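Intended use. Records like the one below are meant for learning the mapping from a protein sequence to its folded structure. Do not use them to infer anything beyond what is encoded.
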Amino acid sequence: MNMKKLLIGLLVVTLFAGCKNEVEETPAERTVLIYMAAQNNLSNWSGSGKRFANSDIEEIKEGIENLGNNNLVIYIDKAKDPSANYDDHIPYMLRFRNGELKDSIPMDDSMLPCDPTTMKTVIERAFTDYPAKDYGLVLWGHATGWLFTDSIANNAARNRAYGGSNKNESNQGSGDLWMNIPSLAKTLKALPHLTFIFADCCHMMSVECAYELKDVCDYFIGSSAEIPASGAPYNRIMAAMMDKETFYQSICDIYASMYRNRIPLAVVKSSEMANLADATKTILQAMKAQGLPEYPNLDNLIYYLDRNLYDINHFIMTYATKYGIEAEYQSWKQAFDKAVIYNKFATDWSTMSHVDFDDFEITEEDYSGVSMFIPQQKLKSTDNKNIKKMSWYYAADLNSIGW
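Structure written out for the chain above:
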């Protein structure tokens, strides 16, 4: 009898050991990290009676059944909510696989989401603890595209771009500390290469951002405009983010349909960005030879933010027509179409304050869904100067045309 029990016990141990080894030896197809920088007003209450960050986490949990053999990791750092009867501002990391919550890990409360050191620590842990054949990153939070604002003196993270955080963990405003795009690129270069970056935040789809990030990801997905605070429909895009072939198209299609095509979206293939920079250099120099001024007239052009970020195709096409260099435009457009491999046409878009961007004519021929900074006299001491901090400025040789 005892011998029989011993044999059964050994069999059970062997079976469990086999299952454990099988799980350990079977790598995930993809690990996607959603990096939620919510130490700002995105921790506030939305019209649905839920905090924006919490609402998205609930959406994510609704969509995890479609994960398959993939890891979904969430890093979330929320602001304090002084009006609530609970305190959930301690950052933590969640990991889902095969439709189940596998891990919940508290993180260091002293870390700021906008700090490159924090991002490096989080991504290293996510991709080391949960390895896969390839990786994706979702940037969730506030952003201003490539733009810089030196609003806080003597602070390395002062430049506005991504991940607005409040030092005092307040939920007021978009944040007083930020990570600029060159810092973001430098941080990501030290980490595993990404199949995609999906920027679920405002204004990131610019040639300046895409060029800066071209060496860290194969595909860059995002919007050139201000996006709604509710962001992407995560309960519907989980399966799309894990798809090997059509992920970027599916993410854009699902996202755009949620807002009835009132959000510009585009996808950049990183390996083509250097060619696009060369083509842009060529056509801008051709325009300069025909009289392109230092501060071009931008009336009636499609713009995405306070008349700072203009649609690159509309600008290039308009001035190529003006100067009679249509052949040069067609050559540039070929390079552009190889770099911007997908976009969703938007008829108009709105800000969080419900100010509509519809005071210009817009057609599918004009529209590209990708912005480019164009210098203006009024920006001489700010953006016209700060654009020189971006790699795109030198790759497209903007200095040679007086920009």
